[in-house]
Amino acid sequence: MTELDEDAAVEAVARAVGRLFTVVTEAQARDLARAVLRDLAREGLALAQRTPPAV
């Protein structure tokens, strides 16, 4: 994922978080979005490493 793609993903998740939790600030929503995306990427990598390649 390029930095531009990551920034776009962070903003999209931040908007969704902001809609769910209207009491958070934009900065808090972006921080949470980055953490969520980082966790998803880590889990995806772990799953890919455990899954045998398709034939």
Secondary structure tally, helices? 2
Percent strand: under 5%
Order of helices and strands: HH
End-to-end Cα distance, whole Å, is 25 Å
Shape: elongated
Overall pLDDT confidence:
77
Rg over alpha carbons: 14 Å
Q: What kind of sheet is the major sheet? A: none
Q: Kindly name the structural category.
A: mainly alpha
Could you list the spans in which at least 5 consecutive residues all have pLDDT below 50? none
SS elements, strand count = 0
Give the total of domains.
Answer: 1
Q: Which range best describes the helical content: under 10%, 10-25%, 25-40%, 40-55%, 55-70% or over 70%?
A: over 70%
Note the topology:
Blueprint: H1 3-20, H2 26-50
Helix pairs in contact: 1-2
What report would you give on this structure?
- The chain is an all-alpha fold and 55 residues long.
- The chain has one domain (3-50).
- The chain contains 2 helices and no strands.
- It has helices spanning 3-20, 26-50.
- Helix 1 (3-20) crosses helix 2.
- It is elongated, with a radius of gyration of 14 Å.
Keywords:
55 residues, mainly alpha
Task: Provide a compact summary of the structure.
This protein is an all-alpha fold.
